[in-house]
Design brief:
The complex is a heterodimer of chains A (251) and B (443). Chain A has 251 residues and is of the alpha/beta class. Chain A has a single domain (3-98, 167-246), classed as 3-Layer(aba) Sandwich (Rossmann fold). Chain A is built from eleven helices and ten strands. Chain A has helices at residues 43-49, 54-57, 80-86, 101-111, 117-130, 134-137, 150-162, 180-193, 206-212, 230-235, 240-246; strands at residues 3-14, 17-28, 32-36, 60-68, 71-72, 87-90, 168-172, 198-202, 215-220, 223-229. In chain A, the strands form two sheets. Chain A has a six-stranded mixed sheet with strand order 6-7-8-3-9-10, sandwiched between helices. Chain A has a four-stranded antiparallel sheet with strand order 2-1-4-5. In chain A, strand 9 and strand 10 form a beta hairpin. Chain B is α+β, with helices and mostly antiparallel strands and 443 residues long. In chain B, the strands form two sheets. In chain B, strands 4-3-2-1-5 form a five-stranded antiparallel sheet. In chain B, helix 8 (284-309) packs across helix 10 (325-354) and helix 9 (312-320) packs antiparallel against helix 10 (325-354). Classes of the chains: A alpha/beta (251), B alpha+beta (443). Chains A and B meet through helix 3, strand 6, helix 4 and helix 7 of A and helix 9 and helix 10 of B. Chain A: It comes from Alkalimonas mucilaginosa.
């Protein structure tokens, strides 16, 4: 099985505080990998380390390396914009721009210099179809995206990310702000997405991790406790910590 | 009572009454300016008075009732006799007269006519029945008959014969004249168009200068600069710049913009005209630049507040789609912060349009024969001196020998200035509402 992303002895500090401690992890291609762990364990920071979003937030310092297809993304000459096109990201709360549905999806494409209306139309339609939003919004493509429901908005920002045809999709608790039905739709969507993308998802919800992921990594206090196939982690965890966490005894 | 006290009701009442007091004062200000300002041009009736049995009755306009002073039990009236036809420069001393109530004749003559002349004089006279094509026949107070050439007459009306509707029409006509004509030697009858125009051009030029600078400075301060003590110190300094007295800014504008910058421009581009200065003298551009400097902190502070209010998630969302910082700022941040920038502009315009003190040093004059924008190449004359409503108000009101006219004129010019600022703000406000609807912020 081929690894898309390799996290290699990666450590991260926000000002003086260490949030990740020598993480070593491999993200298999075209699979869903779930990062689980109690609040503040560093799973979101690890996710953001994979497209270098951490450095936008606070004073941060890192050691170790993350490789995408064998290429280090922490080199000085890394083109961050290009990297983030290859490794897309969706946040916990939907954050559509106050533009039309169409302009939201076309935002990244236009940044890439796509000017042809025909190709934009095609790619917007295809992205919206992939997230199952096309039939719901095709009548109001040019209305503001803020008029959509929260669940639709979240699918819209996923569409916005996959319109760029990234290789990896990072999802930071994408369903935690949604109602059960919207959550279900997102989960189905993630399941479909893994055919074409490598998906890494941070989640607080054990059932969700068990349902949708192929691999699971359990983090605690900045350390990777264990990782492996989801089925193994959930049935025969090697660490007592993992077992306690997934059975709800702590966290 | 004790319970009322303990539940904190006194604070509600205290704060509510403070608000009420503020509102009351604002209402009083607006009411006073509006009512006094609107009175000035309303056509007043003409009265007759006779000083002695032997003299002819004269025409005049009642200005106000003077209260009886010590030793006099009769009430006195101050009347305006108008300008005289012979003396070209009638001094205000001869124009006003205090008369007793007994000298005032009860009858208001129907044939009394008020003539506004192009040179700014106002005549009160009796209309004569003979009419000719080229002259207007009048009988003046001294009893002689004169023919006034029509080309000298700007307007005339019979104040005692007017119906309410005619008065209203005259009133509007006089307002139009006031707003569109140039001032003449008599400030009470001239127009204020150059002052309105000068104020407007200066304020718009200032807005054009201050907006890009202020917005770019705020963007750097909030989006690019590192969050450390130096940024914080610069931010505090910018906030404090807003407190510099405007007259000090005027001194700086004169010393730096006019003499240093203007002087250098003259030496570089207009050496053949020296020692007569072109740009090295107070003028429109320097005034606008000085006011831009004065209002810069306002724009920076307002813009930065708008940038700070924008959720971080919007920026991250843009970065995550492969946008660079510059693309994020121009495509996501600036459009959404535009309403805040317009708020800054509104505040800046309101402040700039009302400033007078610095302008007296850097370009405003009592009377400017040429407008700063006209049909002559290069059409916009940034080096020209200009008139300004605020300064015109001061000049017409307090440098005016004719104090009787000055009082009502001050309110009228004040009303015009207030309306102008209100209109400028209203247009910016409407634009802001439009943008707000377009870029409704996410909660």
């Amino acid at each position: 099985m081929q690894s898309k992303l390799v996290v290699d002895n990666f450590s991260l500090w926000f000002s003086q505080q260490q949030v990740l401690d020598r993480i070593a992890l491999q993200i298999p291609a075209n699979r869903v990998t779930a990062l689980i762990g109690p609040s503040g364990c560093g799973k979101s920071s690890l996710l953001r380390a994979m497209n270098r979003m951490n450095e936008l937030m606070l004073e941060c310092r890192s050691e170790g390396d993350v490789q995408l297809d064998g290429q280090s993304i922490y080199r000085v000459d890394t083109d961050l914009a290009r990297l983030r096109c290859r490794v897309g990201m969706v946040f916990q709360k939907p954050n559509p721009f106050p533009k039309s549905v169409y302009d939201n999806v076309a935002f990244g494409l236009r940044l890439q210099g796509e000017r042809s209306h025909r190709r934009l139309d095609e790619q917007v339609e295809s992205a919206l179809k992939q997230v199952g939003l096309w039939s719901e919004v095709k009548q109001r493509l040019h209305q503001t995206a803020l008029s959509l429901s929260t669940g639709q908005q979240q699918r819209l920002v996923i569409a916005r990310a996959i319109a760029l045809q990234p290789e990896v999709l990072l999802l930071d608790e994408p369903a935690s702000a949604l109602d059960p039905i919207s959550t279900l739709k997102i989960e189905e969507l993630i399941y479909e997405l893994k055919a074409s993308y490598t998906v890494v998802i941070v989640t607080h919800n054990m059932q969700q991790a068990a349902r949708i992921s192929d691999f699971t990594a359990f983090l605690n206090q900045g350390r990777l406790v264990e990782w492996g196939e989801t089925h193994t982690i959930f049935t025969q965890p090697t660490s007592q910590h993992t077992e306690d966490y997934i059975t709800g005894r702590f966290g | 009572m004790r319970q009322w006290w303990q539940q904190g009701s006194p604070w509600v009442w205290l704060s509510a009454s403070a608000l009420l007091l503020c509102l009351g004062l604002f209402m009083a200000l607006l009411l006073l300016i509006t009512s006094k300002g609107l009175q000035h041009l309303w056509p007043a009736p003409l009265v007759q008075f006779q000083l002695t049995e032997q003299t002819e009755p004269e025409l005049g306009r009642l200005m106000r009732r003077q209260d009886a002073t010590d030793g006099m039990d009769r009430a006195l009236w101050l009347v305006d006799r108008g300008d005289s036809l012979q003396a070209r420069d009638s001094s205000p001393a001869g124009r006003y007269l205090l008369i007793t109530a007994t000298e005032l004749l009860p009858e208001r003559p129907a044939e009394a006519v008020l003539v506004q002349m192009y040179d700014g004089r106002t005549l009160y006279a009796w209309r004569q029945p003979q009419r000719t094509a080229d002259a207007f026949w009048l009988q003046t107070g001294t009893g002689e008959q004169v023919a006034l050439p029509w080309e000298q007459v700007r307007a005339h009306w019979l104040p005692n014969q007017l119906s309410w509707w005619q008065k209203l029409q005259l009133y509007l006509q006089e307002w139009r004249h006031f707003l569109t004509a140039s001032p003449n030697q008599n400030p009470g009858t001239g127009g204020i168009f150059p002052a309105i125009f000068g104020t407007l051009v200066m304020v718009l030029l200032m807005a054009v200068l201050v907006t890009p600078f202020g917005i770019l400075a705020a963007i750097y301060l909030h989006e690019y600069a590192g969050k450390n003590w130096l940024t914080q110190w610069i931010r505090t300094s910018v906030y404090n710049l807003a407190g510099i007295p405007s007259v000090v800014m005027g001194v700086f504008g004169l010393a730096f913009f006019v003499y240093v910058l203007g002087g250098s421009l003259d030496r570089l581009f207009y050496p053949d005209q020296l020692p007569a200065p072109t740009f090295g003298t107070p003028g429109l551009f320097w005034a606008a630049l000085t006011l831009a400097l004065l209002t810069l902190p306002v724009v920076i502070v307002a813009t930065e507040e708008g940038l700070a209010k924008l959720p971080q998630a919007q920026r991250l969302g843009s970065f995550a789609l492969g946008a660079t910082q510059a693309e994020t700022i121009w495509k996501v941040v600036v459009p959404q912060a535009a309403p805040a920038m317009l708020t800054g502009l509104i505040l800046a315009v309101a402040r700039a349009a009302g400033e007078v003190a610095p302008l007296m040093l850097v370009g405003v004059v009592k009377s400017a024969p040429q407008l700063p924008i006209d049909g002559q190449f290069p059409y916009i004359h940034l080096e020209r001196k200009f008139m300004h409503l605020g300064y015109h108000l001061y000049d017409a009101g307090f440098q005016n020998p004719d104090t009787e006219v000055a009082i009502s004129l001050v309110f009228t010019i004040g009303l015009v200035l207030l309306t102008l600022i209100l209109l400028l703000n209203l247009s910016a406000f409407l634009l802001r509402q439009q943008l707000r609807r377009k870029y409704r912020l996410i909660d």
